[in-house]
Structures are given as C-alpha cells and as structure tokens.
Design brief:
3-stranded mixed sheet; 59% helix; elongated; mainly alpha
C-alpha cells in the first residue's frame, strides 16, 4: 500500500493563520468612498456591519465544501489514491482546497467591493488605501496561502489554483452585489459605523 509523503504541519498552521487573517481583514476593512460634494467634499471611510452578509455566505460555502463537496469531488491529496484512502495522510480529499477557496473568495469580495465603490460611489476616483486594504494585502495573503498549501504537500497545484479560481469568482460576485446594494455612506447620521 502506498504511503503518502509527509505533510507539513508548519505550512498547515501558517496557511490557516493566513486564511483567517484574510477573513479578518475583509471584516474590518472600511468602505472608502469620495463623498457627494453636496454633502461634504473629500474621502470618507465607514465601517459596515452588513459586510457580515457576504463574508458569512463565503464562510458557509467553505464549510459546505469541507464537509460535503470534497466527498462528492473525491480529488485525492498528493500521494493518495483509492487504494490507500484512510491511511494516515489520506483521511480526506483535497479538492476543493478549503484554505484556497476561502482566502481567494475574500480577495474576490474585496475586489468586488473596491471596483463598485470606485466606479459607482466615488465617480471613478482611485483611492490607494481602499485598494491596499481590499485588494493588495488580501492578494498577498491569498497567494502565500495557495503556495503554502502546495509546498506543504496538502493539495496539488491544480487543486489549489482551481479552488482559488472558483473562490475568486464567487467572492467577486458576492462582493460586487453587496457593494451595489449597500451604499458606503451611513445614511443621514454620518456615523463612522453603519448598521
């Protein structure tokens, strides 16, 4: 019976921390927008508790993947096949990679929010802070997560990047939908935190 190569616990821990950091950043990053000149001129930032809706949807999709979809797709981890399923290192499947799926879906969510906030709510004005927090930092964390899953022998490169693509597309769709439906301003109150 084939015994798989050892899987790196260090990379497993690191990629879990990176994935959770990407989720945390998506939750605490404010919506940055150029205010309507009729109200006040200049850039504003507002924290929205409503960002829980797309974030929790993506987290639920990841949990569905972890507990149901992997069993349906049966994408074997590196070094695993039907004959050695159940031996240590081959207790479960690798497709979709939950870490890559969630981290890239959070990147997609941030990208969707950034694109809609820039195009619709800021009149096409680019903000470096919004780009950094919604796109650049999540992209760095997500790519390191994907590379770590492959380097740690947890999933194959195809499984990792396939999962990343699905996550990015799903996250972008939800982030763009959320940003289109939820104005970045907090209504008439002008509060820093929007409910």
């Amino acid at each position: 019976m084939l015994i798989p190569d050892e899987r790196s616990e260090a990379w497993d821990t690191a990629t879990t921390v990176l994935t959770l950091s990407t989720v945390g950043l998506g939750l605490v990053m404010p919506r940055v927008f150029y205010a309507d000149p009729e109200v006040t001129v200049g850039w504003k930032a507002r924290f929205h508790l409503s960002v829980l809706a797309p974030t929790m949807t993506l987290a639920a999709l990841t949990l569905l993947n972890e507990h149901t979809l992997k069993e349906q797709f049966k994408g074997y981890r590196p070094g695993c096949e039907e004959a050695n399923m159940g031996v240590p290192g081959c207790e479960d499947y690798g497709m979709f990679s939950s870490h890559s799926l969630l981290s890239f879906s959070m990147l997609g969510q941030g990208l969707g929010i950034f694109v809609i906030d820039t195009a619709k709510w800021s009149g096409g004005r680019f903000n470096v802070g919004a780009f950094s927090g919604h796109v650049a930092v999540p992209a760095i964390l997500s790519v390191i997560t994907a590379l770590g899953r492959s380097a740690g022998n947890w999933e194959s490169s195809g499984q990792v990047w396939g999962s990343a693509g699905v996550g990015l597309a799903t996250g972008f769709a939800l982030g763009a939908l959320y940003a289109t439906m939820q104005r970045p301003e907090c209504g008439y109150t002008g509060s820093l935190i929007c409910w």
